[in-house]
Amino acid sequence: MSRSRNDEIATLLEEFADLLDAKRVEYKPRSYRRAAENVREYPQPIEELAAEGQDAVEEIQGVGDAISSKIVEYFETGEIEELEALREDLPVDMRELTSVEGVGPKTVGDLYEALGITTLDELEEAARASEIQEVKGYGAKTEENILENIPFARESQERELLGDARPLADSVLDFLDSVDAVERADVAGSIRRWKETIGDVDVLVASDAGESVVDAFTDWPGADSVIEAGTGKASVRADGIRVDLRVVVPAEFGSALQYFTGSKEHNVHLRNVAIERDLKMNEYGVFDVSDVEDTSDQRAGRRVGGETEAEMYAALDLPLISPELREDTGEIEAAADDELPDLLEPNAIRGDLHTHTDWSDGDNTIAEMVAGAAERGYEYHVVSDHATGPGMVGGVGLDDDELREQIDAVADVAAGADIEVLHGVEANVDAEGGISVADDLLDQLDVVVASPHSALGQDRETATERLVRAIEHPSVDVLGHPTGRLIHTRPGLELDYERVAEAAVEHGTALEVNANPHRLDLNDAGVRAAVEAGATIAVDTDAHSPATLDYMRYGVHTARRGWAEETDVLNTRGVEGLRAFLH
Ligand code: DGT
Ligand code: CA
Ligand code: CA
Ligand code: ZN
């Protein structure tokens, strides 16, 4: 997990570029950024080149004399003198400040010069005091924008994307499984509930040797630093993410797992159910306290369960509730009535209905993507490259002629493939709900995904009507990433989910759960509204490479958070069932 040094050097060069930009130096920042990009992607470890000398470093494109000498200096002395001087000159938290949409390095430089702003808090204070609009070149509108975007920036500073935290959690679990003293290891907290963003990664271990586990954990090669280490408890930072470890004795593993999985609201509700039955529920177990006078001792009473999580629920006459549902949004009532959903399982997915190739902005050929799908055990695969249209910039999308050409190319690959290959398109939903591809062409394609890529600032009513129009289009099969949001980057369309879902039911259009961890769109609430209305959902990765076909799990667990069952999901059907829906 520890990063390659190419990444480290690239990050330094980018910081250099930001600081030069902030000082309003011309041209230089661009060349530093270009060098950073090439260093990051260079296949050979940069430390090897640096050891050979400056000439070797200059083999990297865009790295000339000035930059190579700094790289060598860094490897020799541990710092770059010029960068240190710039940092001293501009002691700003660049990452934090530039996370505010509309605030770039130049703005950071200007605001530091004029007002001495170095942090997000100071930026907010200055904006509230109307000081920013007094700065030359800045106005009331800019100030208002900054103020509006600060909460979003603050959240993006504090919470990690599931797609970043989950692989880290997997690697820490793999590591712990290899530690002798560890009997069982699992994640708890929001990551076990598969929330779209994660405050920290909670890890729980069952062991009788807490000290050895803590020692091993703090030596985990993936950890960049140790935040704290105690008896049976420790926290480290890895790739900027906080990982909390707790060790409990095996007999209390189930109760601890239940407690630390949360959510807090779910646990509070559950504890109240326990109290009504003269039971006490906590991280140590569930206890019958009907004969106990003083219940202040956490382990007081007769213990009726806690080694497994299922025992905790069984003590309350409840079936085990899946972690994804534990948000106190009706799951405890449903469990009591034996009406929990039969949740979608990851292995029920039989194919991906939304993927890209190098015909548009994907990285791989049609054949490579199909091979990736076959490797993952899918029965079918849909090629759905971008069509040109609103929101597609830089010639990314295919025009109608190119799409017609692609029909033959897909057929060629299909003829030699082990799995069924369908030809689709990702068309754009324009601001009024129109579709960006000719109707007769849409008729010829197997799958039409229609997604909004532009005009994402519309109000709720306009946006809802726009998407309903797209849903009504007779050729549209799937409404792709309905809100167009990018987590931590842009909020996307605000929608009346019920209205969208009703239209989807009426017109036989599926609603996508886009599994890309930056999107997760529909989100959990959107899925819940969709399945409650009886709409069909499609869980798709929007993959631009074979590796990103593995995003599927984020979509599946988001669908589970929305109470989706296998029967609600289009791509759990076999190819016959799929084709029947598409017609
Ligand atoms: P996060 O980390 O902000 O994404 O959300 P969680 O849910 O992982 O929350 P976290 O890490 O603060 O705590 C882990 C779990 O511990 C939480 O889901 C519920 C459980 N818990 C139950 N009661 C309490 C309590 O009083 N304090 C804390 N900190 N956790 C509690
Ligand atoms: Ca957590
Ligand atoms: Ca925690
Ligand atoms: Zn796409």
TrEMBL record:
Q: InterPro entries annotated for this entry?
A: DNA-dir_DNA_pol_X, DNA_pol_lamdba_lyase_dom_sf, DNA_Pol_thumb_sf, DNA_pol_X_beta-like, HHH_MUS81, Hlx-hairpin-Hlx_DNA-bd_motif, NT_sf, PHP_dom
A UniProt-annotated Pfam family = DNA_pol_B_thumb
GO terms for biological process, alphabetical? DNA repair
UniProt keyword annotation of Disulfide bond present = no
Any single Gene Ontology cellular-component annotation: cytosol
The protein's name in its UniProt record: DNA polymerase beta
Where is each Helix-hairpin-helix DNA-binding motif class domain found?
55-74, 95-114, 130-149
Which organism's genome codes for this protein? Halogranum amylolyticum
Q: Where in the cell is it found?
A: Cytoplasm
Q: Name one GO molecular function term.
A: phosphoric ester hydrolase activity
Stated EC number for the protein is 2.7.7.7, 4.2.99.18
Q: What does this protein do?
A: Repair polymerase that plays a key role in base-excision repair. During this process, the damaged base is excised by specific DNA glycosylases, the DNA backbone is nicked at the abasic site by an apurinic/apyrimidic (AP) endonuclease, and POLB removes 5'-deoxyribose-phosphate from the preincised AP site acting as a 5'-deoxyribose-phosphate lyase (5'-dRP lyase); through its DNA polymerase activity, it adds one nucleotide to the 3' end of the arising single-nucleotide gap.
Domain DNA-directed DNA polymerase X stretches = 4-327
Q: Which UniProt keywords apply?
A: DNA damage, DNA repair, DNA replication, DNA synthesis, DNA-directed DNA polymerase, Methylation, Nucleotidyltransferase, Sodium, Transferase, Ubl conjugation
Name the source's superkingdom: Archaea
All residue ranges annotated as the Polymerase/histidinol phosphatase N-terminal domain in the record? 351-431
Per the record's keyword annotation, is DNA repair included, yes or no?
yes
- Per its UniProt record, what CDD domains does this chain match? NT_POLXc, PHP_PolX
Look up the record and name the cofactor or cofactors this protein needs.
Mg(2+)
Reaction(s) catalyzed by this protein?
DNA(n) + a 2'-deoxyribonucleoside 5'-triphosphate = DNA(n+1) + diphosphate; 2'-deoxyribonucleotide-(2'-deoxyribose 5'-phosphate)-2'-deoxyribonucleotide-DNA = a 3'-end 2'-deoxyribonucleotide-(2,3-dehydro-2,3-deoxyribose 5'-phosphate)-DNA + a 5'-end 5'-phospho-2'-deoxyribonucleoside-DNA + H(+); a 5'-end 2'-deoxyribose-2'-deoxyribonucleotide-DNA = (2E,4S)-4-hydroxypenten-2-al-5-phosphate + a 5'-end 5'-phospho-2'-deoxyribonucleoside-DNA + H(+)
